[in-house]
UniProtKB/TrEMBL annotation:
Classification via InterPro entries: HTH-type_LysR_regulators, LysR_HTH_N, LysR_subst-bd, WH-like_DNA-bd_sf, WH_DNA-bd_sf
Protein name: HTH-type transcriptional regulator GltC
Gene: gltC
Domain HTH lysR-type, chain residue ranges per copy: 1-58
Entry annotated with the keyword Transcription: yes
Annotated SUPFAM superfamilies: Periplasmic binding protein-like II, Winged helix' DNA-binding domain
Alphabetical UniProt keywords: DNA-binding, Transcription, Transcription regulation
PROSITE patterns in alphabetical order: HTH_LYSR
Domain of life per record: Bacteria
GO MF, one example: DNA binding
Gene3D superfamilies according to UniProt: 3.40.190.290, Winged helix-like DNA-binding domain superfamily/Winged helix DNA-binding domain
Length: 301
């Protein structure tokens, strides 16, 4: 089994055809076909089913894809680690960030990281751990920064707690309900959810239940910061979000936090990467910068 065979196999899987893989890799299609045939022969099994419009993976091929992507990711990391230790500055760092991770920590780490590693490409993925967990394991994501659902601490992932966090109720500037002081007074409002739980409504509904209130009226479910901001700015819908939403200067002029009597706890912000696999020097530096930014948050809490 050769490295180029794994590379070609992943390219075919991602592009859905031999022709697409050849185009993506800048190789001739017969070379890709021969590479896949040799890989299947060495494994003693069929990885793809050839169809009129391309290929589809067999069940064995789907399982092998996970391992192949992990191997390619580790080769990339090893190459970049050696190069960076020799004062090289190239490579790629893939970071998964929740919205709170973006607003509260990444914004502090970006400039110093770029000064130290100006030619390392940052690839940022907005999301939560439940959606990025598989990519962390497979080596497609190097680091995750954000909240972790309660009880989710997989043994093969290293979790570093950064700080405890709080949530606030927010709405657009000039919201007609911005003067209320109790959650009970918002019982009739419409809400959007940004939950990190698998059941998107559960987290907000639990807060209402703890106050002896019926479940909130859900009007929208958003999975990106842009969607949340668009909904909030163009309606009277409310959201319960990490406090970083109103602490960042970028959004403070657009949104306001309701000054309710009781604070609402949020899952702590953490940093996650694979156990047993060291980060590249660029990854280690980024990790250090995130922890330094978290310490500043803790001091000002």
């Amino acid at each position: 089994m050769k490295f180029n065979q794994l590379r070609d196999f992943v390219a075919v899987a991602e592009n859905g055809s031999l022709r697409g893989a050849a185009r993506a890799l800048g190789l001739a299609q017969p070379a890709i076909t021969r590479s896949i045939q040799e890989l299947e022969h060495s494994l003693g099994t069929q990885l793809f089913i050839r169809e009129a419009r391309g290929v589809r993976m067999t069940p064995i091929g789907e399982e092998f894809l996970v391992r192949a992507m992990t191997i390619l990711g580790e080769v990339r990391r090893a190459r970049e680690a050696v190069h960076q230790q020799q004062d090289g500055v190239e490579g790629e760092l893939v970071v998964g960030l929740s919205i709170a991770g973006h607003l509260g920590l990444f914004s502090e780490a970006l400039r110093p990281f770029r000064r130290r590693y100006p030619k390392v490409r940052l690839r940022l993925i907005e999301g939560f751990l439940p959606t990025l967990e598989g990519d962390l394991r497979n080596g497609l994501v190097d680091i995750y920064v954000g909240p972790v659902p309660e009880g989710l601490h997989p043994p093969d992932l290293h979790v570093t707690k950064l700080f405890d966090n709080q949530r606030v109720v927010i709405g657009r500037k000039g919201h007609p309900l911005s003067g209320v002081r109790r959650l009970q007074d918002l019982e009739g409002a419409e809400w959007l959810t940004t939950s990190i739980t698998h059941e998107a409504v559960d987290e907000l509904a639990q807060v209402f239940a703890e106050e002896g209130l019926p479940p909130p009226q859900m009007a929208a479910q958003c999975q990106s910061a842009l969607s949340i901001l668009t909904v909030l700015m163009n309606s009277d819908i409310l959201a319960m979000v990490p406090v970083e939403w109103v602490q960042t200067p970028m959004l403070s002029g657009l949104l306001e936090a309701f000054q309710l009597e009781h604070p609402f706890a949020a899952p702590p912000l953490v940093m996650v990467h694979r156990t047993g696999i060291g980060l590249t020097p660029a990854g280690e530096h980024f990790s250090h910068l995130i922890q330094r930014a978290a310490q500043k948050v803790d001091r000002h809490a």
